[in-house]
Amino acid sequence: MADSVRWGILATGGIAATFTADLVDLPDAEVVAVASRTEASAKAFAERFGIPRAYGDWASLALDEDIDVVYVATPHASHRAAAGLCLESGRNVLCEKAFTLNAREAEELVGLAREHGRFLMEAMWTYCNPLVLRLKALVEDGAIGEVRTIQADFGLSGPFPPDHRLRDPLQGGGALLDLGVYPVSFAQLLLGEPSDVVARAVLSKEGVDLQTGALLSWESGALASVHCSIVGGTPVRASVTGSRGRIDIPDGFFHPDRFVLHRDGSEPEEFAADPAHGPRTTLKHEAREVMRALSAGKTESPLVPLDGSLAVMRTLDAIRERIGVRYPAEG
């Protein structure tokens, strides 16, 4: 691996722009190419960020041997095709979340990565956040005892028109895969894959979930209540309650700037993000994690392991099965 990691960007939407803006600010990262379905879109994106090469198709980017890793930022219904093309062409991949449309597609991507010896990681930036890692370490060290319950929500008020990607079944629309992946991933970061899932939802006329609530349970007796919505703005909070205390994230749990530890019999302790780590919205943590792993010759990240991403996709599949959401691409 060269001193700098050379990135390719696949897709030119909002999240691709946000990630690229953070990448170009990292001294050990170099964005060398971008691809879109149209050459005009790719060229406009390249001009915006000073990227030397712009491709009007995905295959050209996937075959570009000057690229060390491709960031796949398409809607999740296209993740299997886009990331799979890159892996088969010998590229390493960071793929946006939800990882894929379903667990079967996720297993196929992981299989391709392992078959070709390529790096693959889901872009679950929460798992790379230093403050979330601090929270996880406290829980693992027994700061609140044995975890009993987790509560987490993520809702946007909208309203989103029927042709918006969040309501489009062809793009894997609905609250669950776009927003619900966060509370589910947060719960599984601390407890692993649940043993049972109960869920209810309100569906749109297009057949995607407008809001979903799920109760996840574990053999330990722990429960997690998770909720997501594209029809109501929620507090976006999380709480982890244990046998000897509680941790509250009062705002933006998936990219927190602080959390409060309540130990039984003690005064609350507040943990704040280090200002040196940058704004809470930064995607640099996940980019640095990819580059650390690549520099070390790893094919997956210990912070965002592939088995964990597969487990989250199985839970999302279980929730969709219970609420009756199936996408056209699944047949």
Q: Can you walk through the features of this model?
A:
This protein has helices spanning 14-23, 39-49, 58-62, 79-88, 103-116, 130-140, 175-191, 284-295, 306-323; strands at residues 5-10, 29-35, 53-55, 69-72, 92-95, 120-122, 147-155, 196-203, 209-217, 223-229, 238-242, 245-249, 258-263, 269-272. It is α/β, with parallel strands linked by helices. The chain has an eight-stranded mixed sheet, covered by helices on one side. Helix 4 links the parallel strand 4 (69-72) and strand 5. The radius of gyration is 20 Å and the shape is globular. The mean pLDDT is 97.
List the helices and strands and how they pair.
Elements: E1 5-10, H1 14-23, E2 29-35, H2 39-49, E3 53-55, H3 58-62, E4 69-72, H4 79-88, E5 92-95, H5 103-116, E6 120-122, H6 130-140, E7 147-155, H7 175-191, E8 196-203, E9 209-217, E10 223-229, E11 238-242, E12 245-249, E13 258-263, E14 269-272, H8 284-295, H9 306-323
Parallel strand pairs: 1-2, 1-4, 2-3, 4-5, 5-6, 7-10
Antiparallel strand pairs: 7-11, 8-9, 9-10, 11-12, 12-13, 13-14
Helix pairs in contact: 4-5, 5-9, 7-9
